[in-house]
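JOB MANIFEST
job_type = single_chain_structure
chain_count = 1
residues = 387
[input]
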Amino acid sequence: MSEDVESLLKAWTAAFSEEVLDYAQPPEVRDEEVFADVYHSLIHSPLSETILQLEASYACTVETLCRERDYKAGEMEARHAKEMADAVQNVQSGKKGMIEQDINTLATTHIDERELLLSKYESELATLHQKQYSEFRQWVMCVHEEYKTSNQNPLGSMFTRSQSSFSISSQTEVSALQESFTITLGAQMKQMHNLRLIAANILDLCKYPSGEEALPQRLQTSMSLYSNNLCGLVILSDSKLRIDTGITKELSDLCSRSTEFHFPTLQTQIDNVKSDIRMAGGWRKEFHKKRLEMEARLSGEPVDTQQMSKEYTNLQDGDFYLTRHSNLCETHVVFHLISDQPLDNANVSSRHPVIIGLRNLVKTACMNDVTTLTIPLLLSHKMTERM
């Protein structure tokens, strides 16, 4: 009898601690949450300009290394192209006794040289990113501790303050054609929305201007990083979940040109998405299995075995996943909308999987404080004659 009472008490205790907020265990505070609170308080303090200067200097260092890599790679490609052209000409003319096998050997040598160069700079970039990441986070925590105790700028003469007033240039931007609108949606509860049409490469909107012209954008991005006013960007990706193809490769190259101080790298986030997809695939398979069995019972027909054996381990058109960023210009969240097939034909209806996925995406953004969303207007990153 006492054992039954004891087991009953344990069950009720577990139920109350898991289901009732007042009796729940206090949540464990993670290091990421502590750093987020510290950074948010500092970026809204007089130290914000100094933080932005430090971030800009770090980004400049990484950009310099990336430009050196691009220059060396371009130089090597030009040399390889000349060597290959000369070798092909020698084979065709029979000079120097060269044969087709020599062409294959030369091509293999070129590939090895390129991979060696890129791996060298990739290693240097990874080391630089990790060094800057550790230094920046340690610096922020130390400065916050001193600022909290002294309630004044603890830096003294450690960092000279810039004379920039953070004012946006009064000159009209001519880099992209754009036009703005204000619309009202709703029947009874009308709500206003601001729309801006821009003719530009969508990833160009994520690039910071050079020099001090980037300070206003950096300030805006940093101040709203941990707020209820986030900015999102939609790109059309494929279901392969790789960062070396398509627009995802361009996004990865852009992210690697500055250090990510707040979130995991793009590669790490996509790897986490892959593991989540495996769990989601199992849920989808079980859900569709139950639905097919229910439909078969209602119709009196046998279960469609072909549909039952369908795999859901890959993302489908209309699915989307998101990645978080702090080193993109006025972009905190990137929504990767899956679209393996081009949408430049006239057969796209309101029931198309990508259109339905876009609706779910907008709903998710609205429910998670993403108040500014950039979307490819024609759901394509390239203009064609059929558009």
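[summary]
The CA atoms of residues 263 and 358 lie 25 Å apart.
The first strand starts at residue 177 and ends at 185.
exit_status = 0
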